[in-house]
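From the methods appendix. Each design record in this collection lists the tokenized structure first, followed by the designed amino acid sequence. Records were kept in a plain field format so they could be parsed without special tools. The example shown here is representative of the layout used throughout.

RECORD:
FOLD TOKENS (368 positions):
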């Protein structure tokens, strides 16, 4: 359904791995219907004007097209409505002679289903109905057969296959994780599986199970950055700052939202001071600047991005919804009790930045 989301998720899960015994965890993630619809559209509705050309004969005289998909949740299943155009015809003397032409709505109910080996999440069709423009159900045998043989398999083809994604996840992580984490990363990814999937009114609630290295949070604080580490961090942050500034400009251009650009720019400015403060020594009585920044930022940004994603074209919206889902995962990971020994705090930031800087040094050393 969305390989990039899985890669981001794997990055969050595997990025903090430490060599230690593993323990099973279950991570709940809500995939909004907005995200699911964007994924379906990007995979199936590739024709001119956003049409899904489900079937056509060699003469292009008979065809079945779907367009304008609407998705919701009903009774624990996904309800997908598509406007439909159907034509059965015959070619005679180089001309197409229509025999049956029908327009209406195709209604399918699809059940989130996990494979026996828990590696594939699919959406098989459990029921399909077709209605004319007046809302009357059609029972034309030839049309019903075509829906059964062609449309249902196409709509059910959208899936997430962890077996196909693990290698991509591992390659994505290789460039910036320290090499000593490679073994734990691979083991963690190998254990990643679906443990539950349920459709509700807002989306699909998926449960991902994995064996995470157990590393309890050390009560001993992570020491503040040295002067040398501060200089190294400043160089790294300048690269990130330039990248994020460019991303903000692109986001503002795509959404045509000055409000979003102002919000993102404000957050970037706040992050500079919050992260810098988090890397330095702090007074025990003061609030943790990293935790305050992260909580405040996401509460401010998430509603705005969810609203914008619903108005954007499919590909752009998919990127925003992916980011939203992946950031929600961070909260879930911390709710599990920081199984990787990392928390959203100044101590957690110091550990993470040291790991990322070490990974960058190793990656730079590999380059000619």
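DESIGN:
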């Amino acid at each position: 359904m969305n390989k990039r989301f899985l890669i981001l998720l794997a990055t969050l899960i595997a990025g903090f791995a430490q060599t230690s015994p593993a323990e099973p965890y279950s991570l709940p993630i809500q995939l909004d219907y907005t995200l699911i619809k964007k994924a379906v559209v990007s995979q199936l509705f590739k024709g001119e004007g956003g049409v899904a050309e489900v079937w056509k004969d060699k003469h292009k005289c008979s065809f079945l097209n779907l367009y304008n998909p609407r998705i919701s949740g009903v009774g624990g299943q996904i309800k997908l409505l598509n406007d439909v155009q159907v034509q059965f015809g015959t070619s005679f003397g180089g001309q197409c002679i229509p025999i049956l032409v029908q327009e209406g709505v195709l209604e399918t109910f699809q059940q989130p289903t996990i494979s026996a080996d828990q590696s594939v999440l699919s959406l098989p069709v459990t029921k399909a109905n077709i209605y004319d423009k007046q809302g009357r159900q059609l029972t034309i045998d030839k049309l019903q057969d075509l829906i059964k043989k062609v449309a249902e398999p196409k709509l059910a083809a959208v899936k997430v296959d962890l077996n196909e994604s693990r290698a991509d996840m591992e390659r994505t992580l290789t460039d910036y994780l320290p090499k000593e984490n490679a073994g734990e990363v691979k083991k963690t990814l190998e254990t990643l599986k679906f443990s539950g999937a349920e459709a509700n009114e807002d989306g699909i609630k998926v449960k991902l199970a994995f064996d995470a290295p157990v590393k309890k949070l050390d009560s001993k604080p992570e020491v503040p950055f040295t002067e040398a580490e501060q200089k190294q961090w400043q160089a790294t942050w300048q690269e990130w700052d330039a990248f994020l500034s460019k991303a903000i400009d692109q986001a503002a251009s795509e959404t045509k939202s000055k409000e979003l650009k102002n919000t993102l720019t404000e957050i970037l400015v706040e992050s500079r001071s919050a992260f810098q403060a988090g890397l330095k020594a702090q007074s025990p009585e003061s609030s943790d600047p990293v935790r305050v920044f992260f909580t405040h930022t996401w509460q401010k940004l998430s509603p705005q991005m969810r609203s914008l994603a619903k108005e954007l074209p499919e590909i752009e919206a998919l990127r925003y919804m992916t980011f939203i889902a992946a950031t929600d995962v961070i909260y879930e990971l911390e709710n599990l009790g920081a199984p990787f020994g990392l928390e959203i705090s100044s101590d957690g930031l110091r550990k993470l930045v040291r790991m990322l800087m070490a990974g960058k040094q190793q990656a730079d050393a590999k380059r000619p």
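APPENDIX NOTE: The mean pLDDT is 76.
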